[in-house]
């Protein structure tokens, strides 16, 4: 396939991408204009440790994550200045209360230093409106909170040191929360650990987790199972870590749940780590980062399993703003991932188009992402990029069974809301699975 036609097809056919077709296509043609600079091979970033290899610098909330593997965490380089990943601080709690209603949960959560244990089988949607500090919410297995909305956007508020977890920290041991939204800006030191999410918003289902941006700082999302009708995560900020999660997004067609979007993780202008997750979906990308002007932005995506049997859109760093000039991430890495990607309707996507420095290496692909495609995109996007080293390519095969913390389809989806049915979100692309 001609590489220019390949890119034009990807831009034109991707949902939500049409308005930017000319800008992105022109940018690709001019990628060698000096915006990106050549860089020596970063051997550490592409090296895949053997199973059971020692961890030199464990991340506090997911110790299997070795921060010493992350190039921007340990040193500056051709990608830009060093930016160490900081883990969120836990809440400091002085009192424990048990709650059985949304009103009690909301009122107790506004008292700094409170650990709240959900003690009812079901608690309805809960709005914690105001400033929040040093809050822990424990949702035991078998309990449900329909939704958690924390902080306020207007009037402005702050949220500091919040942990939402199951009964055993560091393990999948919790019940079900519909969706979690942090409205505060800034929202800092947030930990979501070991619970199930299904995006229940009372309207047929929405995002699993949302952060206000740009001022989210130090966020850990670990050991979570997520099953969403549309998109899974939206937000931005710095030191955001997703690790050990099992997420299935776009579980219903867009015309049923009322949203065309179905991405896994979409982050704006931030510093993000995505490690040891399985993220599966059928619309948009599994991970997509969007550069913002004048920011030091990095993404390190490693040791994940990604599955997209319909559109084969897995990872991208792309400015979707329509600004001129376009913004560029400082550096992105996608290494040591296993990728199951098939599409018969649009071109695959596994690239760092709008990154000054990009290393997409030592990955294993099954399906539509081929060496020919990656070589074409590397040539189009220009210097400073390596989309080839150490990658292996195979024909499509079915992905393995879900491993711990388990199959997210065991998490029930919210009820369909019939009045949200809209034919305008029905895809005109017949992206059939293999």
Give the amount of beta strand, in percent: 25-35%
Alpha-beta content class: mainly beta
Using only C-alpha atoms, the radius of gyration works out to 21 Å
> Helicity, in percent?
10-25%
Q: Number of helical segments?
A: 7
How many β-strand stretches? 34
Q: Calculate the mean pLDDT score and round it.
A: 88
What is the terminal separation in angstroms?
A: 20 Å
Overall 3D shape:
globular
| Sheet with most strands: strand arrangement | 3-4-7-10-13-16-19-22-25-28-31-33
The unreliable regions are: 1-41
What can you see in these coordinates?
The protein has 434 residues and is mainly β. Helices cover 12% and strands 32% of the residues. It is built from seven helices and 34 strands. The strands form four sheets. A twelve-stranded parallel β-sheet has the order 3-4-7-10-13-16-19-22-25-28-31-33, covered by helices on one side. It has an eleven-stranded parallel β-sheet with strand order 5-8-11-14-17-20-23-26-29-32-34, with no helix packed on it. Helix 5 links the parallel strand 3 (95-99) and strand 4 (114-118). Helix 1 (3-13) packs antiparallel against helix 2 and helix 1 packs across helix 7. The longest helix is centred in the N-terminal third of the chain and has 11 residues, at 3-13. It is globular and about 60 Å long. The model is unreliable at 1-41 (pLDDT under 50).
């Amino acid at each position: 396939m001609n590489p220019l036609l390949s890119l034009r097809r990807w831009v034109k056919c991707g949902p939500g991408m049409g308005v930017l077709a000319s800008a992105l296509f022109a940018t690709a043609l001019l990628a060698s204009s000096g915006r990106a600079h050549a860089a020596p091979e970063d051997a550490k970033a592409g090296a895949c440790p053997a199973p059971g290899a020692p961890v030199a610098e464990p991340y506090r909330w997911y110790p299997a994550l070795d921060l010493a593997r992350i190039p921007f965490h340990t040193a500056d380089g051709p990608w830009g200045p060093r930016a160490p990943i900081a883990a969120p601080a836990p809440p400091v709690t002085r009192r424990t209360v048990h709650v059985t209603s949304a009103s009690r949960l909301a009122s107790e959560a506004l008292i700094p230093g409170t650990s709240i244990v959900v003690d009812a089988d079901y608690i309805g949607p809960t709005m914690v409106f105001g400033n929040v500090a040093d809050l822990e919410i424990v949702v035991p297995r078998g309990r449900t909170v329909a939704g958690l909305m924390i902080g306020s956007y207007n009037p402005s508020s702050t949220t500091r040191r919040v942990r939402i977890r199951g009964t055993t920290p560091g393990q999948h041991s919790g019940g079900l929360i519909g969706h979690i939204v942090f409205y505060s800006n800034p929202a800092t030191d947030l930990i979501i650990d070991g619970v199930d999410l299904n995006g229940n918003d009372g309207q047929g289902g929405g995002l699993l987790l949302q952060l206000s941006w740009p001022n989210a700082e130090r966020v850990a999302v670990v050991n979570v199972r997520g099953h969403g009708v549309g998109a899974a995560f939206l937000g931005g900020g710095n030191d955001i870590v997703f690790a050990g999660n099992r997420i299935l997004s776009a579980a219903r067609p867009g015309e049923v749940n009322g949203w065309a979007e179905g991405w896994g993780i979409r982050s704006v202008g931030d510093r993000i780590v995505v490690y040891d997750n399985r993220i599966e979906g059928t619309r948009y990308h599994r991970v997509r980062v969007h550069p913002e002007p004048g920011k030091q932005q990095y993404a390190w995506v490693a040791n994940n399993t990604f599955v997209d049997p319909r559109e084969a859109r897995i990872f991208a760093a792309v400015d979707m703003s329509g600004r001129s000039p376009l913004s560029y991430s400082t550096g992105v890495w996608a290494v040591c991932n296993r990728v199951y990607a098939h599409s018969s309707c649009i071109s695959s996507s596994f690239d760092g188009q709008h990154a000054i420095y990009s290393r997409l290496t030592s990955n294993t692909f099954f399906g539509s992402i081929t060496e020919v495609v990656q070589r074409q995109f590397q040539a189009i996007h220009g210097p400073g990029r390596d989309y080839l080293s150490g990658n292996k390519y195979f024909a499509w095969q079915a992905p393995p069974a879900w491993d711990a913390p388990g199959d997210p389809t065991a998490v029930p989806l919210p009820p369909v809301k019939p009045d949200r049915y809209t034919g305008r979100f029905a895809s005109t692309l017949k992206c059939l699975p293999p």
